[in-house]
């Protein structure tokens, strides 16, 4: 830059600084000029065009002009004094604006004065003139056309190029006059016109082998310019078939960033000829330019069109060329396929996504409460794209779940909102995908993953895994034993999902349920606080509540049924016959037949199920003589007793339950052999009658035995009747002359009638045998049940009436002081045992019984320090006791503590365990005992009991605690058996401590010997 230029710039800066307050304005001025105009040609005057005069303003200042850039000063010149624009040098439009329809030269000019500073944008459009003629790439070209080419066949020709644009570009083609060919002018997608040679008439090589044609290209200028080329056509002989493409033309869209080697087309041409005439090769047409050959490649054998070099959309967006398929036969006729490659612009910039959540704790995660309503705002999505036009327009889409959607907020911004109620327990977290896609072709996408996390609300109550829990616990468990674990789940999280367990406040058997079991509030584990007893409690029902830690808390409940499983912890207790020190005596007629049921052993087991199923057996004894029914406990004879057998036979009976391990109780039965035969109504064990028989016989043997037995029984019955009649006549005389010498029994009983209606009954133990006669009671007095009897005998010494005893044989009335009792049982009165008759009040009638004196054992009574469960020990109170030097009758063998309850096993015995109950005045009459049942022979008279009270049996052979043992024995010694000699009176019974117990002292008796 010269000195003047620098000085001018300095002046401009000074003027600018001096006029900072002046208004700065900008304006665009457009001019037109033609290319090739001579230098110095005036284009325009800026001063005039912007309405500014070169004279000074009112202030006397002058306006000057100066270009901002100097790069185009060679084409356009500016006069600074008045802003006149002129051409600096000749302008060649084709050089500066090649292939551009509008050619603009733009620059900026500064207009400045003391008062004003202006920036003027100048655009000079260079108009095209027809200064270029069309040109063909070759001045001469050759074509070979087979003579069998079909009429209408099109043959591409070289197209001309004109550097001018617009109307000055090529507008038409012409061909020299001929009879076989014509041209058809077509336009490409970019508007360029080209010509195709069309065969109008069949060729005949023999008539004319060559054709010379001239092709002329003309532009639209005025005057028009033309360009020519020479076409030499050679007619060739042909083979019969030419290759045929699937299609005559193909259009391919190719993105500008396609990698080199990309497959554009897989061309295929078929030639039905064989051999070389059918073998097709591919290649570019003869008119394809070197540029096309450089950018694309056609595989000669396969016809695959691939990209050979990178392409640029900004350089050229359309490529059009021919690919021909030729067979290898003689005179091949190529098939031409036109290929158009459209270069697609590529989106250079991808959309950008920005997501701003409403509530955020962690980056990239939005939080929303699960209680949010529909259409709740979650986050704002903003998009942007630096591209322009369709490539810069962004479409946003949300993927992942239909519980959220995008809602247009404003341009390029969207809101993520909820579309339905949310539930964290079902879906705690949503992983959404935001896709931003511009409208370019092809579109450019940006994908962003986004997470929406739901915050918890306490909207779920704890739910148990089962509404009802059923568990089983074996009885006799240790306190603290684990029972089960209940599990409740709360789908909430945190404190809302933390579950605690609690027992519902209920009562069971009168006690809070918390005294039976305990519950871990954290784990839900259930434990037993006490040892369960199946015999007391079959099932425990409780309710458990599970609560969460929410505010307010929610809760759920479940029922737990604890079933107590029976354990074989109770051994069988033999109830019949009544045992005395583990043994009992049973009468057995010597003449009893085979199968005669002697007695029935009855037992009970406090357990249930298989633990209470009892099996009877014989442990010791004479298995050839006795057998037992395992199911019923009936003991019967296996054979008829011989006359030389001992008078007493003993067997040990076992009663076992079916528990595992099985518990067993034993009892020793002493069978006292008595003379005579059993009554005819007594049960005789029959084989095959439903009883179990130990001996297994053949069927023939059984039939013989049955027949023989029937005859024998018939004979025995006749003999038995005759013998009984004779024996009764013989015994009648003996009974009139013999007495037992026991005087004062009835007198003593009579003396106590008014004071104490209770008399001691000796021999009332389980081993006592007796015979009884009943006397019914009538209102107003006692009426003898014996025919011809009177109400009472004569008055006694004190004036009271004495009950009479009747002889069953001679119907004679026996006074109480003469005959103390009588017995119809044979074998008694033979000098071995004393038999005493006693008349008692039983139910609503008098009953006369005969009983033996109690037998005493010289061994340890079991009340001292003897070993427990010793065979001589007796803690059941079945033996006789001594009180104040007198013999006290033993207590009944079934139950000593008849008033005890189940609480006694745990808490100990109370007073009611041994207190007597009031006697009911209208008690139901009891049937008289007979020989047909052992129970009647061994039944003892005891204090009246409450029929609604449950009996509790304590086993003598089962170990007890020391405390319970002492209480048991203490009470056992204080309870006695009494018999009523007069009808009971409806008065309150005295406490046991106030009852006066008469003591019976046996007197020497004379027992006549009865030989059997």
From TrEMBL:
Question: Where does the chain cross the membrane?
Answer: 699-722
Q: How does it sit in the membrane?
A: Single-pass type I membrane protein
Region Disordered: start-end pairs: 729-815, 851-888, 924-948
Signal sequence region: 1-26
Q: Would you kindly state one Gene Ontology biological process term found in this protein's UniProt entry?
A: anatomical structure morphogenesis
Show the CDD domains listed in the entry: Cadherin_repeat
- Tell me one Pfam family matched here: Cadherin_2
**What's one GO-annotated cellular component?**
postsynaptic membrane
Q: Which InterPro entries match?
A: Cadherin-like_dom, Cadherin-like_sf, Cadherin_CS, Cadherin_N, Protocadherin/Cadherin-CA
Function, as annotated, reads: Calcium-dependent cell-adhesion protein. May play a role in activity-induced synaptic reorganization underlying long term memory. Could be involved in CDH2 internalization through TAOK2/p38 MAPK pathway. In hippocampal neurons, may play a role in the down-regulation of dendritic spines, maybe through its action on CDH2 endocytosis.
Any idea what this protein is called? Protocadherin-8
